[in-house]
Write a structure and sequence with these properties.
By secondary structure, chain A is mostly helical. Chain A is built from 14 helices and no strands. The N terminus of chain A is likely disordered. Chain B is built from 13 helices and no strands.
């Protein structure tokens, strides 16, 4: 919800400067800071304060953190191994021994979902990192230098955008084979144009501002201007798109695994688990149902967080 | 206006050339020998070599790509390594089913998304608004292949209302169309809501209200038409997503379209078919986006005026 304080802060924050030099992670802003106090905390303290007020976004953040925690401590949390098969207990319905039942090879579904979080999150975060690094660099160069360079880069991006991203990922993986690394690369490449466009747009709007002119006047070089002055100010849209992008990347990777192109067994991946439950849908509904719910919960939480971040980073966009 | 359309059509050529180059390059560097794939692993070396020469696989990359483009322009996309039939024929036979599915998906998305989005915007912060935005977010978060399976579980296995696979009648179309259209419906709902909210804050809406028009007229005649512009863009962009999504949806419902053909081709390493399929869907996507841009100009006289 937009408040009066937000408006005051927003108006005093029209031209946010650089990132504050010191922003220690354990420095939590007070619950209701006065505007003049919050100004000292800098842009990111403000963002965090606004985000904290958004209950659905905080719920999303909590769920995302919980899933990350589950992924890290999968070995401790999971009741069974993800690979041990028990052929006497194939496709059993949920029971006290196996809370979410067993799959077509008698493996515990809950444990496989817990270990699967590791795979899905890794794929999501690394794929998005690839897109941001490559797409962001291309967008930054296009936006900062403009001219012919911009033209060449953006025409190449237009070509990539003309191929629906999942199809591009399918083409890459079908050519070079599945496996976790190839899936990350394929999904990462397929979303490069999205980030190139976003970064280019914000570079163009920021490079014309006075503080950039000032930096140039005191003799800062291009590299320094890009990294120290423009980049910190164009982070907001990248962060929002990145958060939503992790969700999309997880979905794409699950889709690839679903058609047998992605992560190969016995690695527990949610999309592949779904795919293996597909032919059991008439006899054992739970095999395909629970991995799907896991994907949905993760994507849902990331979307809540992404929407909240968008509102917190740019309250003017909020409706 | 005609010049604008012509210019946009002309711009399609370099884009499609680029798409062909990307797809051809990916397939070119794919490990594995197409000639060996056609003849089988045990074929004698001499025979494989002869076929390689016949197919021109020993030529350098630029020559092969040049030949591919030259043939593709004339509608020759090579032959399937498995069925040996021309790829163009294979795609041509399946394309109507994919278009039908994608169009049905867009229809589902528009029919659900726009009215719910408008109602949400006119009742901002109401229970209806909160509920529909919540459901929309669930819709965006659901993997469509999973949704398809859950629908089969509910409507085919449990209730027996709709067939779980097949093609031809409306009953066959309903579940695949809902599967492919749901997340687009959710996106259109969110987009319609935010676009409407932005428009109803404009001065001309206040003017319309001030001159005593009924709320219905204000929303339908004044707000909606202006709010439609970004929504139409989203529909165009989503069409690409639907074409990509068709690959997954078609394989769940055994829908005889280009998507399922591609999935089968991938399994059999039938690269010419994969290549042709990607090209066809990318071309369709580009043409749809071109259509959307032209449609735009008709909705928004300001854009039209620029090209007079």
């Amino acid at each position: 919800m937009r408040t009066e304080t937000d408006d005051i802060i927003q108006s005093s924050d029209e031209h946010p400067g650089e990132l504050p030099e010191k922003l220690s992670p354990d420095e939590h802003p007070p619950l209701t800071p006065a505007p003049e106090l919050s100004k000292r905390r800098g842009q990111w303290g403000e963002v965090w304060r606004r985000l904290r007020k958004n209950r659905t976004a905080m719920f999303g953040l909590a769920v995302v953190l919980l899933i990350i925690f589950t992924a890290i401590f999968a070995d401790v949390i999971a009741p069974y191994s993800f690979r041990v098969q028990n052929l006497d207990r194939i496709a059993e319905a949920p029971s006290r021994d196996h809370l979410l039942g067993t799959d077509d090879l008698g493996r515990d579904i809950l444990s496989r979902i817990i270990f699967g979080a590791r795979v899905s999150l890794q794929v999501g975060f690394i794929a998005v990192s690839i897109s941001i690094i490559l797409g962001g660099t291309l967008g930054a160069v296009a936006g900062y230098y403009g001219g012919r360079m911009d033209n060449v880069i953006m025409r190449v991006m237009d070509v990539l955008l003309a191929i629906p991203s999942i199809l591009l990922a399918i083409a890459i993986v079908s050519a070079f084979g599945g496996g976790i690394v190839n899936v990350m690369i394929a999904v990462g490449i397929s979303y490069i144009p999205v980030y190139a466009r976003i970064v280019k747009a914000s570079f163009i709007s920021i490079k014309e501002q006075e503080f950039i002119e000032a930096a140039r006047a005191v003799g800062a070089r291009d590299g320094r201007i890009i990294v120290r002055h423009i980049l910190p100010n164009s982070l907001a849209p990248i962060i929002v798109q990145g958060t939503l992008g992790v969700a999309t990347a997880i979905l794409s990777a699950a889709g690839l695994s679903f058609i047998g192109l992605g992560i190969q067994p016995p690695t527990p991946e949610w999309g592949a688990m779904l795919s293996s439950g597909r032919h059991l849908i008439r006899s054992a509904w739970h095999v395909a149902t629970f991995p799907g719910l896991a994907i949905m919960l993760t994507i849902f939480a990331l979307n809540l967080l992404g929407d909240g971040l968008r509102d917190a980073l740019d309250p003017r966009l909020k409706q | 206006m005609h010049r604008y359309i012509l210019r946009r059509l002309f711009l399609l050529i370099p884009v499609m050339f680029g798409v062909s180059l990307v797809v051809f390059t990916i397939m070119f560097f794919t490990p594995g020998d197409p000639a060996k794939l056609m003849l089988g692993e045990r074929a004698p070396e001499a025979e494989v070599a002869a076929l390689r020469a016949q197919m021109g696989l020993d030529d350098p990359f630029p020559v092969q790509f040049g030949r591919f483009i030259f043939n593709a322009v004339r509608g020759d996309l090579g032959r399937s390594l498995v069925t040996r039939r021309p790829v163009f024929q294979e795609l041509y036979a399946r394309f109507p089913a994919t278009l039908q599915l994608a169009a049905a998906g867009v229809l589902v998305a528009v029919v659900m998304g726009i009215p719910i989005g408008i109602l949400s915007a006119t009742r901002q912060y109401s229970a209806f608004d909160a509920a529909s935005m919540g459901i929309a977010l669930v819709g965006v978060s659901m993997p469509n292949f999973w949704q398809g399976m859950m629908m089969i579980l509910l409507f085919s296995v449990s209730l027996g209302v709709f067939p779980s696979s097949g093609y031809g009648t409306l009953r066959h179309l309903i579940m695949p169309a809902l599967t492919i259209g749901t997340s687009t419906a959710a996106i259109i709902t969110r987009m319609t809501r935010s676009s409407m909210l932005e428009v109803v804050r404009q001065d001309y809406i206040r003017t319309a209200r001030a001159k005593g028009l009924s709320e219905r007229v204000v929303i339908n005649r004044h707000a909606l038409k202006n709010a439609l512009i970004p929504i139409v863009t989203v529909i165009g962009l989503q069409f690409g997503y639907l074409l990509g999504g068709a690959v997954l949806t078609e394989s769940i419902f055994s829908w005889p379209g280009v998507g399922r053909l591609m999935v089968d081709a991938i399994r059999q390493k039938d690269y010419p078919v994969v290549q042709g399929g990607v090209l066809l869907l990318a071309l369709t996507f580009s043409v749809v986006n071109l259509g959307v841009d032209i449609l735009y100009a008709y909705i928004d006289p300001r854009i039209k005026a620029q090209y007079k």
